[in-house]
TrEMBL record:
This is Hemerythrin domain-containing protein. InterPro entries: Hemerythrin-like. It holds the Pfam family Hemerythrin. Residues 1-26 are annotated as: Disordered. It comes from Herminiimonas aquatilis. The lineage of its organism: Bacteria, Pseudomonadati, Pseudomonadota, Betaproteobacteria, Burkholderiales. PANTHER family: HHE DOMAIN PROTEIN (AFU_ORTHOLOGUE AFUA_4G00730). Transmembrane segments: none annotated. CDD domains: Hr-like (cd12108). Residues 28-147 form the Hemerythrin-like domain.
Amino acid sequence: MTTATKTNAKPARKSPAKSATKAAGPDAVSLLMDDHKKLKKLFKEYEKLAKKDDIEGKVDVAMQICEELTVHATIEEEIFYPAARAAIKDDDLLNEAEVEHATAKDLIAQIEQMSGDDPMYDAKVKVLSEYIDHHVKEEEDEMFPKAKKAKMDMAGLAVEMMERKEELMMAMA
């Protein structure tokens, strides 16, 4: 009986801590990863519409992609990256991420100015998709683990990021 009580006591101590963290809301990395998943789905949806030659549909999805990426990049650049830069001290990793954002923004601007029936439209969205896949992989495999290990205030950053995201989305509406 004593062994069972001790065994049960350990998970009971860990469980409330996990529940308290979840009750406090999502953390910054979870929010960013949710955006990554949403973008991946949008790019897949775009691909399906492009194969069907649904110009109106693919343009609608491409504009959603551009908007989501613009907002995502902005909250990373304004909130997450500065906090990560201070906490993890890996300027090369963060500099590369910011350069990747600049290139993605350039492609986004080109896509937003193009007509959906332009012969280069699908190619630009495809390159943007591949570029974002690469960027996401680096963030999720390198930056986010370092940020978590550095004990950044992920809950506080999440609140700030959610508020800023809401502002940006409202401004774009």
